[in-house]
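Q: Give me the 3D complex with alpha-D-glucopyranose.
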Amino acid sequence: MQKKWWHGKVAYQIYPKSFKDTTGSGIGDLNGVTEKLDYLKSLGVDIIWISPCYVSPLADEGYDIADYYKIDPRFGTNGDMWRLISEAKKRDMYILMDLVVNHCSDEHEWFQKALADPYGKYAGYFYFEKAVDGHAPNNWRSYFGGSAWEKVPGTDLYYLHLFHKKQPDLNWENRELREEIYKMMNWWLDRGVAGFRLDAIMNIKKALPFEAYNYEPDRDDGMCRASRMIQDAKGIGDILAEMRDRTFKPHNAFSVGEIFNNTNEQIPEFIGDNGYFSSMFDFRETILGASDKGWYDFEPVTPDEYRDACFMTQRVVDDQGMVSTIIENHDEPRGVSRYIPEGDLTDRSKKFLAVMQFMQKGLPFIYQGQEIGMENVVLHSIDEVDDISTIDEFKVAREAGLSDEAALKLVNTYSRDNARTPMQWDDSEHAGFTTGTPWLPVNPNYRQEGATSPVSADDPEIKPVNVAAENRDPDSVLNWYRKLTSLRKNSDYSDTIVYGEFIPFMEDQSNFMSFYRKGKAQTLLVLGNYRNERREVKLPGEVRQVVLNTCEDFSVKDGVLTMDGYQAVVLEMR
Ligand code: GLC
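A: Here is the predicted complex, encoded as structure tokens.
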């Protein structure tokens, strides 16, 4: 693998609506991001991906863009964006925009013009398709529920929307459209953004002609999930190579793809030395336990499944490229609530998960709040939910016969809103996120009286989850993340952590997640006790140094280490 400027960095995702509000509107804004740059710097963050902040009706919270060249006034102005970019530069930090180009908003000028002239130039920017026997062209179900086809008013045409009907798909077969997108990408790159995160990018190539791809229904509604078509849509590489050559390459930009449904064979093509993208997210663990039927049919994730998924990616990708690792993002529930078995959620188990992410090979992305151990929130009614996909899943679960209460439990387990509640800065009202009324409820655990998870199984002390309190506490989850980011940048170890070979250790042990990182300078052994009970581990050699340890004690007797529940250690071996 060729070395790249970003390999040793630490990245952070901001969901601007929930990060920091500087106006009292109840919605976060770009000035709030600028205000917190020093905080992010103190955490060791270099690269910041900002979820969409362009003009948008916010039907899918900004993933429905109505003007690619303009910041939505709710988030600020273009001037605020230029200031953010230049303040970030002063601190050697890089800003990534979210590039949402599988679709735009139905309120985008292109779509409005297409509706006004359904056979004209702009209709060709979308998929306006003739009805087949009076029906939609095929039986694809949109990712957010219901048919992926919507009638074009006053015609016998349908337009395609793989996501919400307010998110019409753009037609990437159309050269003019592609030129418009490259022009826009270069416009942002010329203004100093360091690159992009590419939203839903595997969907841009469709299986055509549409009517030839009616699939076996996967639910009683007679439809099939839209992602099924990705296997049949050949030739995405030609488009992505063109995009790379026209935009990223000339700017030496960083690009990270939201890639689902790829094959292992595609990895070098996507993120190899001359790949389409710099990196791609590893989502293998986020789809564990999932079912085509919907949330009501999901299975909880076990520690062994989590480990196996992470290890599988490490093996498959190996030295072919650099993946980006996550524990969560704005589309997932909080990782600590999901991957730590119920009842085991403590500061210590949160640190365990952090060690596992940071010590694997890959560019670590911290999602806002992950670094302070933010947890899922309890919503008391479906009326408190904002997210469109959650509203659909709730409906599907109710239709499958679940009670209101049982369906709400699924919401509290899987909803994207779990990750979208406001960032918890301190213990003042609304966690210091806003002086107004927050657009989504704040998790009550930002204050001592609302906090629930203890320090560890043997230390029942309960601490509030917020930045200010955790800044003061040397043992906090936040300060633990700081240790991990500084270790990644410590020149004694960075080469091993960034490039060292990944070799699983004692993989046959249940509830145990351990591996070597073998580098030129040293061999590190990462040991993680993925359960509450103690365990004894026979060390495979002599320990030169304990590099990190989530617990105070490190007791080795006759070469056997006794590990506490959820203890994680990083050892330098002789
Ligand atoms: C991606 C985004 C998600 C959005 C969807 C449609 O998966 O991460 O938030 O809803 O694409 O743009």
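A quick observation: DSSP finds 16 helices and 25 strands in the chain.
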